TrEMBL record, chain A:
The gene is LOC116486566. Residues 20-325 form the D-isomer specific 2-hydroxyacid dehydrogenase catalytic domain. PROSITE patterns: D_2_HYDROXYACID_DH_1 (PS00065). Residues 115-294 form the D-isomer specific 2-hydroxyacid dehydrogenase NAD-binding domain. PANTHER family: 2-HYDROXYACID DEHYDROGENASE-RELATED (PTHR10996), 2-KETOGLUCONATE REDUCTASE (PTHR10996:SF149). It comes from the Eukaryota. GO terms for cellular component: cytosol. This is Glyoxylate reductase/hydroxypyruvate reductase. It holds the Pfam family 2-Hacid_dh_C.
TrEMBL record, chain B:
This is Glyoxylate reductase/hydroxypyruvate reductase. Residues 23-325 form the D-isomer specific 2-hydroxyacid dehydrogenase catalytic domain. It comes from Aythya fuligula (Tufted duck). It comes from the Eukaryota. InterPro entries: D-isomer_2-hydroxyacid_DH, D-isomer_2_OHA_DH_cat_dom, D-isomer_DH_NAD-bd, NAD(P)-bd_dom_sf. Residues 115-294 form the D-isomer specific 2-hydroxyacid dehydrogenase NAD-binding domain.
Length: 328, 327
C-alpha cells in the first residue's frame, strides 16, 4: 500500500524534546501516513482533510477546540497511556470523534513502580544511596533503620487493572491487603490475592501502613486525599501515589509531612509536572518524587503504541473498539 | 534487681556509632548484667571471671585470643545477623566457646531489599528522583526510559532461606526464575515458585536479565563472580548483591561496568564497608549502592536481640541452643 493510501495520523513531532521516538515512529508508519504538527501548520488546507486520527503521547499534541474544528475528517484520538484527564472528553465527543486509551499496556510497569516506590520509601533507599557515596561518610551507623514492608498492611485505593496487579505483587510479600473501590470485586478475585474490601475509605486509611492511590482522575476523585484523610492515617504510615497528582491536596500533604502526621510519601505523579522549583514538597526529607515514570520502560512504550494503533485502526475500519473511553 | 544474680554478658558499648541500641540495652538488662568493654578494661581481674557470654552486635566487641584467655568462664558468643565470616570459628572452638547467629530472622527483610534494589536499579529510581527535585529541571524528557522487571528473567545464586524468599516475591512479578545452588531444592519447593535449577552457574549467567547473589561468604564463594562470570552475563543484565562484598571481585566488576560488559550493578554490600571515598564504584552512574541495610528495620533488629538473648540463656542453662552455629 502506498503511503498516500494509509490513513493520516497527526503526531506532535518525530524525536526532539517532546516528540515520538524513532522506533515508535517506525511502528506507526506501518499503518498510517504520519503528519507532524509542523507539517500540518505549514499546509493546513491540504493536510487537514487527510488527518483521520491523532496519536497523543504524554499529553501531546494538545487537543483543543481549534484543532478539532480544523480536522473535518478526524475520527479518533488514540491516547498512549490509560489516563485521559488531559482530554476534554465531552468536547471531543461533540465533534463526533472517539477517544481510546491503552489500559492493558500500562498495567505491569505501573504496578511495578508502585512496588518500587513503596520499597524504596520504607527502606530509605534514596537516603541510603546518598550516604553510601557521600564524600563525608566515614562509617555506616548501625542504628540507621527503615520500616518493614513484608507483613505490613497495604491499603489500595482503586482496585482496577493496575491496583489488582499491585495486590498480586504485595501478596508475595505476605502483606495484609485492604482495598477501596467503587465496586467490590468478586469473591474469587478477592481470595486470589487475599484482599479485604473496605466499603468506607476511612476504615482503610486507619488500618494501613502503606496507602497506595491507583485511581484515575475524575471530578469525583479530585483531591480525594486531603487534610481529613491524612489525619485518619497512622502517623507511621506512608502515602504512595501512582494515579494522578491532583488526587491529593498537595498543600495538605506538605503540612502533614512537615508535622509528621504521616511518616512519608512517595509520588510518581504531582500537579503540575514538574513541580515549580521552589515548591515545599521538594524541600522535605521524608518524601520521594519520581518524574512520572510509571510506564517509562522500553517494553511499555512499545506495548502502548501497539495498543493505541490497534484501537485507532478498529475505529477507522468500523470494527469493535477494544478500549474506547466515553465522557461521563 | 540484684546485679549479682544476673549472668554477666560482655558488650562493646551502649549507643554511639556501633553500640547496642539504648532501648535494646534496657530490655537486655532485665536478663543480664551488662558489662561494657570500657568497664571490663578498667577491672579485668574481677570482671574477667564473671563474664559468661559475649553479645556481639555488628561485629563488636572484636574477639581475639587475648580476650578469650582472660574470660575463663565464657560459654557463648552470640553474634547478630546471619553472616559469620567475621568470626574465627576454629579459635572459639579451641576454647570450648559456642557460637550462635540469627539466621532466619533477617531473611525477609533481606529478600525485600533485594527486590527493592532490583526495582530501583531497573527503573532508574534514584536518577529519576534526582531529576524530579533538581533545581535545574525545567521539564521531564519524553524518552527517558528504564527496563521492565515484570516478565524478565531473574537468576538467583544461592537458594537458601533468603534466596527462596526472593523467588517467592519475584514470582508475583511473573519473572522467569533460574537458580544455582550447592544442592537442588526438591520438586515441590521448585514448583511453588516456578524456579528452574541451573547445575552450571554459566547457564544461569547467560540467560538472566538480573543476577542476584544470596550466598553466604565461605572460601568457596569468595570472588565467585569475577571477570569470567561477568563476561558470561548479558550486556543488558544487572548484578545485584545482597550477600557479602567479597563474593564479587570488585576490580573485575569496575572494569566490567566501565566497558559495558554488563549494564548495571546494585550493591547492598561491598568490601570494605564503607568503600574508600575515592573508589571508582562511587562515581559510576550505573551503580546503586546502599549502606548494608539488608536487615535494617526496627522490628527485625528487635527480633535479632531477642534471638540472641534466647541463645545466651540456653547456653548458660545447658539447654540446646536455638541458633547455634556448628563447625
Amino acid at each position: 500500500m502506498s503511503e498516500q493510501e494509509l490513513p493520516g495520523l497527526l503526531i506532535l513531532d518525530i524525536g526532539g524534546t517532546y516528540g515520538v521516538q524513532e522506533n515508535i515512529v517506525a511502528l506507526l508508519k506501518k499503518h498510517f501516513c504520519l503528519i507532524t504538527m509542523k507539517e500540518f501548520l505549514e499546509n493546513k488546507k491540504e493536510m487537514s482533510k487527510k488527518i483521520q486520527s491523532v496519536f497523543v503521547s504524554e499529553c501531546r499534541p494538545t487537543v483543543d477546540q481549534e484543532l478539532l474544528e480544523s480536522l473535518p475528517n478526524l475520527k479518533v484520538i488514540g491516547n498512549s497511556g490509560v489516563g485521559v484527564d488531559h482530554l476534554n472528553l465531552k468536547m471531543i465527543s461533540n465533534f463526533g470523534v472517539k477517544v481510546t486509551n491503552t489500559p492493558h499496556a500500562v498495567a505491569d510497569s505501573t504496578a511495578d513502580i508502585g512496588m518500587a516506590l513503596m520499597l524504596a520509601s520504607a527502606r530509605r533507599l534514596v537516603e541510603g544511596s546518598q550516604i553510601a557515596i557521600s564524600p563525608h561518610t566515614k562509617y555506616f551507623a548501625v542504628d540507621w533503620l527503615g520500616v518493614e514492608v513484608s507483613r505490613a498492611t497495604l491499603g489500595i485505593i482503586g482496585m482496577g487493572r493496575i491496583g489488582y496487579k499491585v495486590a498480586q505483587r504485595a501478596r508475595a510479600f505476605d502483606m495484609k491487603i485492604l482495598y477501596h473501590n467503587r465496586k467490590q470485586r468478586r469473591k474469587e478475585e478477592e481470595q486470589a490475592v487475599g484482599a479485604h474490601y473496605c466499603e468506607k475509605m476511612e476504615d482503610l486509611l486507619q488500618q494501613s501502613d502503606f496507602v497506595m492511590l491507583v485511581v484515575n482522575l475524575t471530578p469525583e476523585t479530585h483531591k480525594m486525599i486531603g487534610k481529613k484523610e491524612l489525619g485518619l492515617m497512622k502517623p507511621t504510615a506512608t502515602l504512595i501515589n501512582i494515579g494522578r497528582g491532583a488526587l491529593i491536596d498537595q498543600d495538605a500533604l506538605v503540612e502533614a509531612l512537615q508535622n509528621n502526621v504521616i511518616r512519608a510519601a512517595a509520588l510518581d505523579v504531582t500537579y503540575p509536572e514538574p513541580l515549580p522549583r521552589d515548591h515545599p514538597l521538594l524541600k522535605l526529607n521524608n518524601i520521594i518524587i519520581t518524574p512520572h515514570i510509571g510506564t517509562a520502560t522500553v517494553q511499555a512504550v512499545q506495548m502502548m503504541a501497539e495498543e493505541a494503533i490497534a484501537n485507532m485502526l478498529a475505529v477507522l475500519n468500523g470494527q469493535p473498539i477494544p478500549s474506547e473511553v466515553f465522557p461521563k | 534487681m540484684e546485679d549479682q544474680k544476673l549472668p554477666c554478658v560482655l558488650i562493646d558499648c551502649i549507643g554511639e556509632k556501633h553500640g547496642v541500641y539504648e532501648d535494646h540495652a534496657e530490655l537486655l538488662k532485665e536478663h543480664f548484667c551488662l558489662i561494657t568493654m570500657k568497664e571490663y578494661n578498667e577491672n579485668k581481674t574481677i570482671l574477667g571471671k564473671k563474664i559468661r557470654a559475649i553479645y556481639m552486635w555488628y561485629h563488636k566487641p572484636v574477639i581475639n585470643e587475648e580476650l578469650l584467655q582472660s574470660l575463663p568462664n565464657l560459654k557463648i558468643v552470640a553474634s547478630s545477623g546471619v553472616g559469620i565470616d567475621h568470626l574465627d570459628l576454629n579459635l572459639l572452638s579451641r576454647y570450648g566457646v559456642k557460637v550462635s547467629n540469627t539466621p532466619f530472622i533477617v531473611s525477609t527483610d533481606t529478600a525485600d531489599l533485594g527486590m527493592a534494589l532490583m526495582l530501583a536499579s531497573s527503573r532508574r529510581l534514584v536518577e529519576g528522583y534526582q531529576m524530579a527535585v533538581s533545581p535545574d529541571t525545567e521539564y521531564f524528557p519524553a524518552n527517558w526510559l528504564g527496563a521492565e522487571v515484570s516478565g524478565a528473567t531473574l537468576g538467583i545464586i544461592g537458594m537458601g532461606t533468603i534466596g527462596y524468599k526472593v523467588a517467592e516475591r519475584a514470582k508475583a512479578f511473573e519473572m522467569k526464575i533460574l537458580y544455582h545452588n550447592r544442592k537442588q531444592r526438591n520438586k515441590e519447593e521448585e514448583n511453588a515458585v516456578g524456579a528452574i535449577y541451573c547445575k552450571k552457574i554459566d547457564d544461569l549467567l547467560q540467560q538472566s536479565d538480573f543476577v542476584m547473589l544470596a550466598v553466604n561468604l565461605t572460601p568457596q564463594t569468595h570472588k565467585l563472580i569475577g571477570k569470567r562470570e561477568l563476561q558470561l552475563m548479558k550486556p543488558t543484565a544487572t548484578l545485584i548483591n545482597i550477600s557479602r562484598g567479597l563474593v564479587v571481585d570488585q576490580d573485575d566488576l569496575v572494569e566490567a561496568l566501565q566497558n559495558k560488559v554488563i549494564k548495571a550493578a546494585a550493591l547492598d554490600v561491598t568490601y570494605p564497608e564503607p568503600l574508600p571515598r575515592d573508589h571508582p564504584l562511587l562515581k559510576m552512574e550505573n551503580v546503586l549502592i546502599t549502606p548494608h541495610i539488608g536487615s535494617a528495620t526496627k522490628k527485625t533488629r528487635l527480633l535479632m536481640m531477642e534471638n540472641m538473648t534466647e541463645s545466651i540463656q540456653a547456653a548458660l542453662t545447658n539447654h540446646p541452643i536455638p541458633y547455634e552455629v556448628l563447625l
